[in-house]
Specification:
single chain, 425 residues, alpha/beta, Aspartate Aminotransferase, domain 1, Aspartate Aminotransferase, domain 2, 2 domains, eight-stranded mixed beta sheet, three-stranded antiparallel beta sheet, 14 helices, 13 strands, binds pyridoxal-5'-phosphate
């Protein structure tokens, strides 16, 4: 295929006309597809349905679990998540159904009461958070909600640019945290290298209440059994570096069993845990211990959990491969875009020519395919290059997905050809 950047005016004009006809044809089909959010599809949800039969009125359930109490979670749930995250159960708090909820609470606690005796952020003039970009829009929404200034940091193949991170964290006392999705990151699929994890653990924060928000949402979400990333253990790395208190690690079973009805957990130092429980005891008398028990009885141990994740991957993998195959086939060699080939997680990350992402997303929308809003993966929804688009292949059926990906590539070509033509005028 011929690179668009080598085409002359006439070639580009003809190309735009041809692509426009194809686009109008797609539009007339009245598609209604959604590749916007990383939601599991019904086959994936079906994989966990028999978990609902694990506990019924005849089941033996400790009385304590039926009642109020057990603030930091049941013993077997702590043992289960300890295996999943490779940490001690003493480092864990088991919560309710959502890890995002825990993250919101942690920011909220920093804001209103402060961590371990530090001044609450609401009493300070300026609070800043580092945001590796592109990143998870809901992280950025939380910090924006609290009026925290967000500073974008480039996310490279090995993780965030650590020179930039160290420069800010080690010198600026108003920098109180950083958002990280360290394995199969949302949306780029990046896994942080061992060196990056080491540098995180060895930070020397100017602020004593600086915390790394280590959202390990995709820690067991591999697409392949033979090609996998495994991010190094941040809790251990921080302990070894003599910095045990600088990290909060989050995870959940939202994309393991049922989003909205899973179990979420946080791992952190014993000092942080004690401090958090002091606040939590005011907030709640305990979370849903029956759901915690249901999950542990269903999976039994890490082997049961990983077998289940292989079934999840069997549903997801063909969808990722279908999207990537269409991108490779339709767009390779045109010099108008690049895209990720992730080994896990929930997203394919797409970089269009500068100044094209919004137009591509709009063109898709007009033809009936909804994508995540352009810019959503940047703080304040502002992608300075207007080039990044997040593709979420999980929710549509395979056939729908192929149609949607085909339309997407057509929109990329049409918008890029128009843009290249404009640049020649
Ligand atoms: N963290 C990341 C990086 C995510 O991508 C998502 C969901 O897409 C979540 C957290 C949400 O997790 P939960 O369902 O546990 O609140």
């Amino acid at each position: 295929m011929k690179s668009y950047v080598t085409m002359n005016k006439e070639e580009l004009t003809n190309l735009v006309q041809e692509l426009q006809i194809q686009y109008d044809h797609f539009k007339s089909q009245g598609l209604q597809l959604n590749m916007a959010r990383g939601k599991p599809d019904f086959d994936q949800l079906g994989l966990s349905k028999d978990m609902l039969d694990v506990i019924d009125s005849q089941s033996e359930i400790p009385n304590d679990y039926l009642n109020y109490g057990i603030l930091d979670g049941t013993l077997e749930a702590k043992e289960f998540f300890a295996e999943m995250l490779d940490v001690s159960k003493d480092n864990l708090i088991i919560y309710g159904n959502s890890s995002l909820n825990i993250m919101f609470d942690q920011i909220s606690r920093g804001y209103t009461h402060g961590y371990m005796g530090a001044t609450p952020w609401c009493q300070l003039d300026k609070i800043k958070f580092l945001c590796p970009v592109p990143g998870y829009d809901r992280h950025f929404a939380i910090t924006e909600h609290f009026g925290i200034e967000m500073i974008p940091v480039p996310l490279n193949d090995n993780g965030p640019d650590m020179d930039v991170v160290e420069q800010y964290v080690n010198n600026d006392e108003s920098v109180k945290g950083i958002w990280c999705v360290p394995q199969y990151s949302n949306p780029t699929g990046t896994t942080y290298s061992d060196e990056t994890v080491k540098r995180f653990a060895s930070l020397k924060p100017a602020a004593k209440d600086f915390r790394i928000f280590w959202d390990n949402a995709y820690c067991i979400h591999h697409l392949y059994s033979d090609k996998q990333d495994h991010v190094a253990n941040i809790i251990k790395a921080c302990e070894e570096a003599g910095n045990p208190d600088i990290v909060f690690e989050f995870c959940s079973t939202s994309k393991v069993t049922f989003p909205g009805s899973g179990v979420a957990a946080m791992a952190t130092s014993k000092n942080n845990k004690q401090d958090i429980l002091k606040h939590m005891t005011i907030q709640t008398i305990g979370h849903d211990k029956i759901n915690q028990l249901r999950h542990v009885r269903y999976f039994k141990n890490i082997d049961g959990l990983m077998k289940h994740m292989e079934k999840q991957a069997d549903v997801l993998r063909p969808k990722f491969e279908a999207v990537i195959e269409i991108l490779d086939k339709e767009l390779s060699g045109l010099d108008i875009a690049s895209w990720s080939h992730p080994l896990g997680g929930y997203f394919v990350s797409f970089d269009a020519m500068e100044g094209c992402a919004k137009d591509i997303v709009n063109a898709c929308k007009e033809a009936g395919v909804i994508l995540t809003g352009a810019g959503a993966t940047y703080p304040y929804g502002k992608d300075p290059k207007d080039s990044h688009i997040r593709i979420a292949p999980s929710y549509p059926t395979l056939d729908e997905l192929k149609q949607a990906a085909q339309l997407f590539t057509l929109c990329v070509k049409l918008v890029s050809a128009k843009k290249t033509l404009e640049s020649l005028h």
